[in-house]
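Memo to structure team: turn this sequence into structure tokens by end of day. - J.P.
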Amino acid sequence: MTYSVSLLHTINPLFFALLAVAGLLLWKAIYTFKTYPELRGNAIKEMIIGGLVLTLILGIFVVVPLVAGITVKTSELSLRLPTGFTFETYPEADILSAKLVNLDQTEYTIARKVVGTETRDYREGIFLLQNGTEAAVFVNGSTAILVETPNRILLLGPTRFDKFLKSFEEKLIPVQP
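Reply from structure team:
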């Protein structure tokens, strides 16, 4: 089963503010194009730039969170973290341990972003943890499963975390509390 983050958790006031600014700029360019024939060249440039900005905003806030996800199959864990450039599959044999962690109160608190995206509780990409370790992170909240592999630490906490935890334990390995 594939676990991702709900679209409703990724939309925030910044998204609406940027969307409003882009919409206003596009409306102004269209108005200028229709009303002032002598300024049509500038209006076309503004429409092109506004369209590109609108596409970028929708890509960052809507498409990236929908593409990102975790797939739990029998004896296999797959990650798709586009902003962290992580598209990896881990067989059960490569999962050394798994434990439940609270990101608010442990050494596994996220200290800073290396590459990725974060809005509110949503974090996806490569992050540096409080203990100095670099980890691939896909969380939507403060509770996650810390998965140790030979190459990397993973912090996984998608939407519907309880179902994800149950599926992880059934198909892969038990999670230590």
